[in-house]
Amino acid sequence: MTMAGATAAPTAQMSSHTAGLSVGEGAGLAGRVVLITGGTAGIGYETARGLARRGAELLLVGRSVGRGTAAAAALDAETGRTAARFLAADLSVQAEVHRLAAAVRDATDRLDVLINNAGALFGQRQLSADGIEMTWALNHLAPFLLTHLVLDLLDRAAAVAAPARVITVASAAHKGARIRWADPQLRRGYHVWLAYKQSKLANLLFTFACAQRLDPARITANAVHPGLCASDIATANAAVPMFLWRLAARWFARSCADGARSPIAVASDPGFAAVTGAYVVDERPVAPDPAARDQQAMARLWALSAAQTGIDPAAAAAIGSATGGGRG
Ligand SMILES: NC(=O)c1ccc[n+]([C@@H]2O[C@H](COP(=O)([O-])OP(=O)(O)OC[C@H]3O[C@@H](n4cnc5c(N)ncnc54)[C@H](OP(=O)(O)O)[C@@H]3O)[C@@H](O)[C@H]2O)c1
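Above are the sequence and the NAP SMILES. Below is the predicted complex in structure-token form.
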């Protein structure tokens, strides 16, 4: 994969899908195409909602077809446009990430924004269909693989309305985490929070490595922490007992709509157009844990992730050499 030569002016195929329809509230993203994983529930749905109101055309990804089609229909009903489409994929399965990328390619010939939002906690250690620990497979490897597979679509968008934006929904849970290099899949001593914290540190290391490899005039890469939000994430895979989560959510959590404010801002605000390699909390760049800026860890994680996803490490390196590198 290379960033070179992908600059022909495109026509977004999804635009014909919405041609002739009125633009919804806030036309700041009119005609812009946004791919959002986990856009069918929780923070992802509220993010999609905010972007739809600003005029974006949305591709929502999730596993449940019922939930996904209902989410797309609800967004269309709210905006009065045919602007949201659901694409089913289990992102913990690498073959499905490849199939998703092909479906995205069928739906659009450019992507203005990619939001790697889908994520989960797993109460018990589970293996993905590829034999990889689930938290690592879904929370980290899926964003790594999907971002690579759609880089050329992002680069095409940059030719029209530069730069395209890659946003990964990380978490303050990265603080105090470390990557278990000798055992990243936690075969020994698995714990739900250990796995989750490690995956969220990986989100930041990946984001900052991307920002260094990509030309920020063409593609930016940033991460956000949405805050503790009253979604179903903690109870979906028996990670936290229901009564505990309900108590915590009632006293400490914000709404998913509030949690969506940072991803919406980074995806749409002109003020973030030239920002890359940032960790954004409450709509402002803040300093992450120093472990997230560790250059050696970034390089090591990139090599490990490339090996685990079958991405050619030389091709990944070519992203940087083709663009002359970025800043982080
Ligand atoms: N909630 C919080 O307090 C909080 C705090 C910090 C960071 N975050 C981060 O915010 C992101 C969103 O979390 P959330 O709380 O909104 O979660 P959520 O309410 O559980 O929603 C998760 C979304 O991801 C989809 N999803 C889950 N597993 C998937 C898979 N294997 N393949 C494809 N899609 C999948 C779900 O749809 P299906 O079930 O239909 O697949 C749903 O749309 C995550 O990355 C999380 O780590 C959340």
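Residues 37-38, 40-44, 61-64, 67, 89-92, 117-120, 138, 169, 171, 225-226, 228-229, 231-233, 236 surround NAP (CB under 6 Å).
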